[in-house]
Structures are given as C-alpha cells and as structure tokens.
C-alpha cells in the first residue's frame, strides 16, 4: 500500500511539474483543474447517465465475448478440425485494427451498438484463446484412464475439464473485461451515442475544454480499474476451490 501511494504521489507531482512547464491549460492542465472539472461534472445528471450508458455497453460486450469465447474455444480445444477451420477467421479478427472495425460498424449498426460490436470482436478472441488453452490443459493420461473405466461424460466435464480450464477461463475473462472498456469508449468517441463516456470526451474536446477531457478519461480509467478489482474479488472463491495444480497457470498469468 505504501509503495502504491508513493507511485501515485510521484505521478501527480510529475504531472503538475509538466503542466507548469507547458504553462497552458489548453494543452496540459494540472491535476487541480482536472479535479475541479471532475467535481463539476459529478453534480450533473447527464454525467451519471453517461457513466451508466457506457457501463451497460461494457457489460453487454463482456457477456457476449465470454459466452462466444467459451463456446468456440471449447470446441477448438476438443476438435482439431474445427480449430483448423476457425483459425483463419480468428487470425483475421486479431489482425484487424480497432479503428477499422469501429468505422465499418458505423455502416451496419446504430450508434449505441457500434461500440458493443467492436468490443466483442476485439475481446472475443482473448476469451476464445483462454478457453481453448484451458480445454487442452486437461491431463491426457487422466482422460485416457476415464475412457478405460467408462467414466460418464458429465463426470469428465465437471471433474476434469472444468477444473483444468478454470484458471485460463478466469484469466481470459479478466483480460476481456479490460479490453472491453477500452474499445467501448473508443467506439463511443467515434459513433457518438447518447449518454456515453466517449461522447462526453469528444464534446469536451470540440469545446476545447481540456480539463474536462482529462476528467472524462480519468473516470474511464477509474471505472475500468474498479470493475477489474471487483471481478478479482468475485472470482477469488472459485480460485480457492481449485486444486493447487490448477492454480499455477492463473498465478503465472497474474504475475506477468
């Protein structure tokens, strides 16, 4: 906690010094003007409606990405032919720039759904990969022994497949949540839906209200960090229930 506080203090001091050197609130406002702009926005109802609108879009994109990723990733992990057929599609999605996806989506969807579509295409491959690796992480010797002793398929899934895949699924879901926030707000900046963090950010930029732009951006960062933190608390109990061997991949990913 001490080192985190020290890091925040160093960041704020560096920010303040940089703003004094630049000497222009239009280019780089200091922490105090940004805080004042943030407090002013917090007193207005449209600000909180924008927070709620973006949160709902993130939630929609996150849930869609997780469901689709687990479905396709599980099939890819168990069926090599399905994995080979899907591989070009996944490669194409990963290689497509976020901005290109957002611009294309603006031709196909209403402004409120453009960020969701773009976020799903960006976040879904992360969940897909996590599910695929998780399914493949099951010990082959245990699977062979299960077949030898005619263990029911449901038992194999619940006792072998899911515990082995769970660390990868949880790690993939956490990364999916983070990328969803980033792409959602980027999509909102371009598509300009009503009541959105990205819309507020863009309107402040057009009005040359740089402190407000920073305030909108900081609110986005805070929400992303808060939801990831709460998600980490939510998954803490399932992680404790995993056997020690299954926790190692999740610990390794968290450390990295």
List keywords for this structure.
256 residues, MetI-like fold, 12 helices, disordered C terminus
In short:
It is built from twelve helices and no strands. The chain has 256 residues and is mostly helical. It is elongated, with a radius of gyration of 22 Å.
3D architecture notes:
The protein contains twelve helices and no strands. The protein is mostly helical and 256 residues long. The C terminus is likely disordered.
CATH superfamily assignment?
MetI-like
Q: How many beta-strand elements? A: 0
List the uncertain runs: 245-256
Strand percentage: under 5%
Measured distance between first and last alpha carbons? 20 Å
CATH architecture: Orthogonal Bundle
User: What is the molecular shape?
Assistant: elongated
Total helical segments? 12
Percent of residues in helices: over 70%
N-to-C series of helices and strands:
HHHHHHHHHHHH
Can you summarize the main beta sheet?
none
Mind sketching the topology for me?
Blueprint: H1 2-22, H2 31-42, H3 45-78, H4 80-95, H5 98-108, H6 114-136, H7 140-148, H8 153-191, H9 197-206, H10 210-234, H11 236-240, H12 244-255
Helix pairs in contact: 2-10, 3-4, 3-6, 3-8, 3-9, 5-6, 5-8, 6-8, 8-9, 8-10, 8-12, 9-10
């Amino acid at each position: 906690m001490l080192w985190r506080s020290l890091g925040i203090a160093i960041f704020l001091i560096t920010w303040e010094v940089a703003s004094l050197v630049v000497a222009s609130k239009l280019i780089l406002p200091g922490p105090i003007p940004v805080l004042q702009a943030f407090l002013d926005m917090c007193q207005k109802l449209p600000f909180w409606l924008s927070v709620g609108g973006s949160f709902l879009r993130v939630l929609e994109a996150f849930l869609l990405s997780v469901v689709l990723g687990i479905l396709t990733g599980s099939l890819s992990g168990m069926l090599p032919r399905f994995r080979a057929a899907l591989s070009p599609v996944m490669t194409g999605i990963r290689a497509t720039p976020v901005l290109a996806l957002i611009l294309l989506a603006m031709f196909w969807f209403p402004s409120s759904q453009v960020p969701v579509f773009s976020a799903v295409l960006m976040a879904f491959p992360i969940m897909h990969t996590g599910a695929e690796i998780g399914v493949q992480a099951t010990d082959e010797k245990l699977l062979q022994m299960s077949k030898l002793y005619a263990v029911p398929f449901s038992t194999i899934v619940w006792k072998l497949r899911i515990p082995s895949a769970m660390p990868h699924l949880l790690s993939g879901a956490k990364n999916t949540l983070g990328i969803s926030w980033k792409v959602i707000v980027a999509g909102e900046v371009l598509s300009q839906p009503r009541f959105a963090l990205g819309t507020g950010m863009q309107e402040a930029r057009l009005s040359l209200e740089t402190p407000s732009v920073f305030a909108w951006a900081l609110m986005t960062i805070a929400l992303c960090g808060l939801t990831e933190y709460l998600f980490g608390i939510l998954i803490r109990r399932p992680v404790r229930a995993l056997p020690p061997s299954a926790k190692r991949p999740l610990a390794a990913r968290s450390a990295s």
